[in-house]
């Protein structure tokens, strides 16, 4: 293909906008396609051969995108469950910091002090 043709310019030219890692070479459209194909489990070496047969390309690309989307959703669910498990196993309040007025457990001494002050303002009194 000649150098002035638009498909060749698009595949082998450099992308002007977007970011690149410091010191890395400028990204080409072809580099972005390679990354996307790899994420979708499409062989990036022979993608142009697959694209020549339109029906096969549609089948391969739809399967690849579906697989990518399932993997992405599973990753998000896994990250969420790990985050929720981490929050559930968070440090429980120390029983040494419990309110003398209402027996609420606080996480720190300053928190206990602040809580007891608000309890006194609400009219709680020391239990007998």
Overview of the molecule:
The protein has 128 residues and is mainly α. Helices cover 57% and strands 0% of the residues.
Q: What is this structure, in a nutshell?
A:
The chain is an all-alpha fold. 57% of the residues lie in helices and 0% in strands.
Please tell me what the overall shape is.
elongated
Number of helices: 5
**Number of extended strands:** 0
Mean pLDDT, nearest integer? 82
Taking Cα atoms only, what radius of gyration do you get, to the nearest Å? 30 Å
* Beta-strand residue fraction: under 5%
Report the sheet with the most strands, covering strand number, pairing sense and barrel closure: none
Work out the helicity level.
55-70%
Q: Looking at the chains present, what oligomeric state does this protein adopt? A: single chain
Distance between the termini: 93 Å
H/E element sequence: HHHHH
From the structure above, extract its key features:
mainly alpha, C2H2-type domain-containing protein, 128 residues
What secondary-structure arrangement, pairings included, does this model have?
Blueprint: H1 6-12, H2 29-39, H3 47-52, H4 54-88, H5 109-122
